[in-house]
Amino acid sequence: MKKKHRIQKLLCPLLALLLAMTSAVPVFAETSSVAAWPSAPEIADESGVLMEVSTGQVLFDKDMNEIRYPASTTKAMTALLILENIDDLNQKVTFTDVILPDLAPGNSTINAQVGEELTVEQCLYAIMLASANEVCTQMAVEVAGSVSAFTDMMNARAAELGCKNTHFVNANGLPDPNHYTTAYDLALILAEAVKNENFCKIAGADKYTIPATNKTSTPRNLENHNALLTEGDYKYEGAIAGKTGHTEAARNTLITAATRDDMTLVCVVMRSEGNDRFTDTIKLFDYGFDNSEKLPVYWLKAPDSEEPDGYVILPKGASTASMMVTDQDTEGVSRTRTYSYQGREILKLTAAFPLQVETRTTSDMSMFKVGTVKKQLVSPLVFPAMLLIFAGLCAGLVSVLVQYVRKKKAKKNRKQRKKITS
Peptidase S11 D-alanyl-D-alanine carboxypeptidase A N-terminal domain location, by residue (predicted)? Predict the structure, then answer.
């Protein structure tokens, strides 16, 4: 009887440990509605991209990483840096002779004069609506002390935003072999810029008037060149900001942002001819808004939390439960969860151990309390230790069983010998 008790004492913790280990293994198998990614439209432009701002998710890509000349779409970065570095938009700016090279015939200008005074706000409207090259140069000096110092800021900011194929050498986008970018990098820049309320106010205006100044007796009437933002055949519902560009080297370029149904999309098209940049941008916006929706993702937070862990853009009619989920742990320090839909990776979330997971409980005929339960998941490094313990218990159990069998066999042999001798 004592031997049986010893075996039971070993078996009980062994089975309990095995049960605990089994219950800790996550299972990601859930059936739900699956909708296919919609077919992308054809565009005439040589490269283009459609991106959702809050997630950074790319919905359309045509050679988006091909290096191109940006032309005046450069000015989105120029305006962003001005707004990030000058708080008072009523601050006065006095033009100097640094602007003279940009006043050459054929350049986009407002014909600013040396000694003329404008406010920072007026300069921003001149940059984004009239595409005034000399104003970009003067504001670069105003912000950084020199154009080269300002372009250093532009390149550093681009790198911060994740741009990998961008290099600026001026603030206005005039052609230079070392001044280049891609459709994707421009989308990253515009996605950051439209988070700034003043940028959207200025870059989304259809008209603006600069009143008479100390050097001019008549006002300057400015008009936005982006047809999606002005009254006419191409005006797009929900368009909030944008910038056109054109040089012989770059051909036509266009960056635009639009908001609808809780989604903000940015569209970039490059090396375009004629009005293709407007028709193709409309085509891509319609494709994004008509076929996609923004859905919350819950991992550590309960579904009733005010803010989810993240968002994804999925085809309309799809469910987040249909996504494939994979986890990867880094030296027991953190866990990265990757969400994919129909083979396309769309979201990564990372959290440090221990993970505080919130789960939502709901009532079922008043049997369960409604509320949120928090669970703590420990580092997976705990499992090797549990396995060692498990192995030790197994070894101990085997040893006891072997001893038990030997003693029982010896006892049986002694009984048989007694029978023979008697």
Answer: 38-272
| Whether residue 131 lies in the annotated active site | yes
Q: DSSP string covering 378-414, please?
A: PPTTHHHHHHHHHHHHHHHHHHHHHHHHHHHHHHHHH
| Contact in structure between 116 and 215 (CB atoms under 8 Å) | yes
| SS3 assignment, position 295 | strand
Domain boundaries, the chain: 47-292
> What distance in Å separates the CA atoms of residue 417 and residue 422, rounded to the nearest whole number?
9
DSSP code of residue 73: G
CATH 3.40.710.10 fits 47-292, yes or no: yes
The one catalytic residue in 47, 62, 75, 292 is: 75
Out of 124-138, 166-180, 242-256, 396-410, least confident range: 396-410
Q: Which of 47, 131, 272, 292 is catalytic?
A: 131
Terminal Cα-to-Cα distance of the chain (whole angstroms): 29
3-state secondary structure 224-274: CCCHHHCCCCCCCCCEEEEEEEEECCCEEEEEEEEEECCEEEEEEEEEECC
| Cβ proximity of 340 and 348 under 8 Å | no
User: Amino acid identity of 1?
Assistant: M
Angstrom distance (rounded) from CA 47 to CA 253:
10
Measured CA to CA in angstroms, residue 51 lies from 159, 183, 186 at distances of 18, 10, 11
Residue located via tokens 């191109």: 68
Q: Mark whether 363 is an active-site residue.
A: no
| pTM, two decimal places | 0.81
Answer positive or negative: Cα dihedral of 125, 127, 128, 129: positive
Residue 162 has pLDDT above 90, yes or no: yes
Dist. CA 158–CA 397, nearest whole Å: 63
Say what the pLDDT of residue 407 is: 73
Question: 298 is written with which tokens?
Answer: 């819950």
Catalytic residue among 72, 108, 272, 292: 72
CA atoms within 13 A on the CB side of 258: 24
What's the one-letter identity of residue 41? P
